[in-house]
């Protein structure tokens, strides 16, 4: 099969298209023919080596964290899926590799593709959908009537999280440039701060939850918009000791994470608010609940641009540029 391989870490390291063997299946795995794959900023960060502390992939390896496609073959212990099923997934860490024509995915990380959207639209969902679900539903336990501030509303996570928060009955604020206002209003944003003209921390206050996806400076400002006992959940770091315990990190890594998050945790404590770090986990059961929301019309995919498989490096560069509104997708099959 054809696949895009990362031979060495580095910002200027282009992925190389190569012929590699089709993956062998374990008993609990499903072989999926990749019809489309989503491109995420995480892909660029992994390529650049920024996540080697958490995800020490040994080069060469296939990049890619989102897949929509068709089941070709199943392992002998697989019960939920069969050949011919249309599915989608965010494969488990250390089992990524969706920039390829085929991928083996654990049954537990797979879900049936929503029937009312295309393969390309489905490929845009898993990583951002699960990130928003685990932040707002699992971690924050967002309730009807609460206020949530979702940064970078026009991004992949933002466009999904806004819709999910509105479905859960929250009032939603976000940041964007003026060109994205109409789209974000349509998705359900109640208040939009033009980050080019205003400082959001001077406009927003008294929020129950913040979903932080930006840099450390933005995180510090975001703590100030929370009301006492509010919660900031960050998907961009720094990782905290609780997260280190969750992943059963070695002692040295735990100490590094404790140091990296010390200043943020101290600021949060002083403001009487909570801070936690989220690194999304694969989950077929949660993705199936997202399928139900999409099929009901509560959430719709937002796709900015679809690239050809041959233009995978161009797709990655476009995502890294920060210009995309919604998700960028690669059509593989």
Automatic annotation (TrEMBL):
It comes from the Bacteria. InterPro entries: ADH-like_N, ER, GroES-like_sf, NAD(P)-bd_dom_sf, YIM1/Zinc_Alcohol_DH_Fams. SMART domains: PKS_ER. Residues 10-330 form the Enoyl reductase (ER) domain. SUPFAM superfamilies: GroES-like, NAD(P)-binding Rossmann-fold domains. PANTHER family: ALCOHOL DEHYDROGENASE RELATED, RETICULON-4-INTERACTING PROTEIN 1, MITOCHONDRIAL. This is NADP-dependent oxidoreductase. It comes from Undibacterium flavidum.
